[in-house]
Amino acid sequence: MDTNLSVVLHAQGDLRLEERPIPEPGPNDVLLRMHSVGICGSDVHYWQNGRIGDFVVKQPMVLGHEAAGTVVKVGSAVRHLSVGDRVAVEPGVPRDMDEFFKSGRYNLSPSIFFCATPPDDGNLCRYYKHSANFCYKLPDNVTMEEGALIEPLSVGIHACRRAGVSLGTTVLVCGSGPIGLVCLLVAKAMGASLVAITDLSSERLKMAKQLGADFPLVVAKEDTPQEVAHRVEGMLGSQPHVTIECTGAESSMQTAIYVTRSGGVVVLVGLGAEMASVPLVNAAVREVDIRGVFRYCNTWPMAISMLSSGKVNVKPLVTHRFPLEEAVQAFETTRRGQGVKVMLKCDQDDQEL
Ligand SMILES: [Zn+2]
């Protein structure tokens, strides 16, 4: 075995490539040779700001949580995986069998382990150990990159489940970044009849159009939320049943409430300031439900079957690839907002996608 090159965030603005020891898997773990790891907005946010909300980087932390790799060592109690299996990694692993775990909503467990959320290390490295129960074997027709993309795809699945998207639902997605795009893909796959999607950038909306958006809409900062709502209603022919807000911008949250049909659902995926001024009474008197999401739960098996069956195609999301050694350039690319998904290739011996 070689060394364990890792992408480590030491403090705000201080990102380093360094060698770490190769971990030893416990009885219920597997050791993975990492293959493809996507860079997430949250990784960049920790790098630039040293924190997200109450999660503060206080000690060096390995970044990365959108990952797939190959099993190279199996813990003594693991039965369902063997050496050579290609797996997708679910980064959130509950530590306690608390009420949230018991009810199946383990993403809400306050003590959950989560890759690259301080103080827990992520998997942007050569070798990484993880709970075997949260590693999912990939079918032969699902690539490692698709496996890594299951993480952002899971955000879309969870958001659409929370929104209750189903056959014939009309949907507005606010924001055409990677998360807006996966919400679009999943909404379509779940049977949404029409999906409109907004963004400030017409460049980003091109990808949305390519991925199946019915109505891409460029919005400007000066547009009032009521104006945007009116235009969306005009395009869809009526107000959307569901709005999935992925920007975190206050004005976009306001649009989301104004535009959603009475009795419909607004799901807030994007994170903005803690306090926001929104037309809450407008939502209340029209019985528009406002729902939050926190990551996801119980999505990997569904995502794998969606990818394997060809119902969802996430491959176009990957626009840039860098070897692990060039992680700093890869992070720069993501920070500048270039492309959609930047993928780091951690396995020098395997050049498959
Ligand atoms: Zn992420």
Bound molecules: zinc ion
Which segments are poorly predicted (pLDDT under 50) over 5 or more consecutive residues? none
Q: Tally the beta strands.
A: 20
Give the count of helical stretches.
Answer: 10
Structural class: alpha/beta
Q: Please state the overall shape, judged from the principal axes of the Cα atoms.
A: globular
- Report the end-to-end length measured between terminal Cα atoms: 22 Å
Biggest sheet descriptor? 7 strands, mixed
Helical residue percent? 25-40%
GO cellular component, one term: motile cilium
Domain Enoyl reductase (ER): 13-344
Organism: Muraenolepis orangiensis
Keywords: Cell projection, Cilium, Flagellum, Metal-binding, NAD, Oxidoreductase, Zinc
Secondary-structure map:
Layout: E1 4-11, E2 14-20, E3 29-38, H1 41-49, E4 51-52, E5 55-56, E6 61-62, E7 66-74, E8 86-89, E9 92-93, H2 99-102, E10 113-114, E11 127-131, E12 135-137, H3 144-163, E13 170-174, H4 178-189, E14 194-199, H5 202-210, E15 215-218, H6 225-236, E16 242-245, H7 250-259, E17 265-268, H8 280-285, E18 289-292, H9 300-308, E19 318-323, H10 327-335, E20 341-345
Parallel strand pairs: 13-14, 13-16, 14-15, 16-17, 17-18, 19-20
Antiparallel strand pairs: 1-2, 1-6, 3-7, 3-11, 3-20, 4-5, 7-8, 8-12, 9-10
Bound molecules: zinc ion.
Zinc ion binds next to helix 3.
